[in-house]
Design brief:
By secondary structure, the chain is α/β, with parallel strands linked by helices. The protein is about 30% helix and about 25% strand.
Length: about 240
């Protein structure tokens, strides 16, 4: 069975719906909290989740420095990784991009994502509609990722998804159900208010992602992609 190593930064920010999609494609999902171990560079798939930390302040968190080294090693060896939110920012940094606080504030809630022209040619993103809604909770962003294809954007922040080599970075949260997102919101009311969002306005996401089939399509496409790439002969 293929092993999908999931690196979490917070106990309540796990792989969620992504785990089920990976398991259907034959992966055994193993989650670990804030710890990189020897041999992780050889895992068939590494998934790095979100969290409140910042990629540009990785020196304050030794586990983030370890994750950056891990992602760089896997990029150099052509092994697949997936980064979500903070994980995408770490993947971008590992590939040589600058990560920084966004100048247009926090994106929080269900917001439209636009597939780019490059996204329409990507073997995962081509199956998505040109516009779909995803759950967002982030205030940091990144610049151009060397050698990467930009796959999706929002009106506020152009860098929402990219592919570099066999790895994908997603700024938004396809792994979340609406109920989990609301649990996050209820646990951090000050952050929701600071983002200029009314808590009551978020109740509409309770049925997410059932109301947004594109999210299921994305998760299934990523899982199939990674299963194919992880099953191929390994590079030396």
């Amino acid at each position: 069975m293929l092993r999908a190593l999931v690196l979490q930064h917070e106990p309540n920010e796990g792989p969620g719906l992504l785990a089920s999609a990976l398991e259907r494609e034959g992966f055994q999902v193993l989650a670990r909290l804030r710890k990189v171990e020897p041999g992780d560079e050889d895992a068939p798939l590494v998934v790095v989740m979100g969290g409140p930390q910042a990629a540009y302040r990785a020196s304050e968190h030794p586990f983030l420095l370890d994750e950056l080294r891990l992602l760089r090693a896997r990029l150099e060896r052509g092994l697949p990784s997936l980064g979500i939110c903070l994980g995408a920012q770490l993947l971008a940094a590992a590939a040589g991009a600058r990560v920084f606080p966004g100048e247009r504030g926090v994106e929080l809630g269900p917001l439209p994502v636009h597939r780019t022209e490059e996204g329409s040619k990507d073997e995962v993103f081509f199956a998505l509609p040109p516009r779909f809604v995803a759950l967002h909770w982030h205030g940091d962003t990144w610049g151009e990722v060397p050698g990467a294809a930009l796959l999706a954007s929002t009106e506020r922040y152009p860098h929402q998804a990219f592919r570099v080599g066999l790895s994908y970075g997603l700024q938004f949260h396809p792994e979340l159900t609406g109920s989990t997102f609301l649990e996050w919101a209820d646990a951090a009311p000050e952050e929701v208010a600071a983002a200029g969002v009314e808590r009551a306005s978020l109740d509409m996401v309770r049925a997410f992602p059932e109301g947004e089939p594109a999210i299921s399509t994305l998760l299934e496409g990523l899982a199939r992609f990674f299963a194919r790439k992880a099953s191929r002969p390994r590079p030396p």
